[in-house]
Automatic annotation (TrEMBL):
It comes from Flavobacterium algoritolerans. Residues 40-130 form the Rhodanese domain. The keyword Electron transport applies. The keyword Disulfide bond applies. Residues 122-232 form the Thioredoxin domain. SMART domains: RHOD. The lineage of its organism: Bacteria, Pseudomonadati, Bacteroidota, Flavobacteriia, Flavobacteriales. Keywords: Disulfide bond, Electron transport, Redox-active center, Transport. This is Thioredoxin domain-containing protein. Signal peptide: none annotated.
């Protein structure tokens, strides 16, 4: 019995030690700290784990694109220097978290993950301003709000897991509540200018307008029942 207790104590110690080590090696930091760490690092390894299409549209200077969703992620990151800090990011933080955990498993010593991804980076004003308007402009967006009915704007993305979960009932509400509220879904990746200027830093984001004034705002997943309460 005594031996059994000692054995369990050893197992718990090992598990806790490993968990503690992992948490120390992956440091999730905000946009400002992420930028400062990059600036203070000589020849920083910056890893963008989004798709090539996302990377082409915008990325942090000197970043290398290795798609987390691709089939060669491990093979490509194995070519990087594991002894040097690595800075990893995606669009909102979901993919970069998984990538950071994999980097940790592969033996990378110091991993910095951008909290909130490019959405938070853009909202912090750290992206270079683009002269080209991508998607709706602010004046065009404002025109969508001119309605006798309430207007719900749903910012989403195809890669966003909570957005995908919400899509079926949001689309159904577009039909069922059409006489009470106009529901407009806007793809964040196709409306980058709007996302940046409105400082939207999380997906999904929902804004409910009444006579062009914001009456309710919500970021992150919301259940069908809770959303209906806001719209009815």
């Amino acid at each position: 019995m005594k031996f059994h207790s000692i054995f369990l104590a050893i197992i718990c110690f090992v598990v806790l030690s490993c968990n503690g080590q992992n948490s120390k090696e992956i440091k999730t930091i905000d946009s400002k700290a992420f930028a400062e760490k990059i600036a203070a690092t000589q020849n920083p390894q910056i890893l963008d784990v989004r798709t090539p299409e996302e990377f082409t549209s915008d990325h942090i200077d000197n970043a290398k694109n290795i798609n987390w969703l691709g089939t060669t992620f491990v093979a490509n990151v194995e070519k990087l220097d594991k002894s040097q800090p690595i800075f990893v990011y995606c669009k909102s933080g979901g993919r970069s978290q998984k990538a950071a955990e994999k980097l940790n498993e592969l033996g990378f010593k110091t991993i910095y993950q951008l909290d909130g991804g490019m959405l938070k980076w853009d909202a912090a004003g750290l992206s270079k301003p683009s002269a080209k308007i991508i998607g709706l402009s602010v004046p065009e967006y404002n025109k969508l709000l001119n309605s006798d009915k309430k207007v719900l704007i749903n910012f989403y993305a195809e890669w966003c897991a909570p957005c995908k979960k919400m899509t079926p009932y949001v689309l159904q509400m577009q039909k069922d509540l059409a006489d009470k509220v106009t529901i407009i879904r806007l793809d964040a990746d196709k409306n980058k200018t709007l996302i940046s200027e409105m400082k939207i830093s999380e997906l999904p984001t929902l804004l409910l307008y009444d006579k062009a004034a914001v009456k309710w705002k919500h970021s992150g997943f919301i259940s069908e029942a809770d959303l209906k309460k806001q719209l009815q």
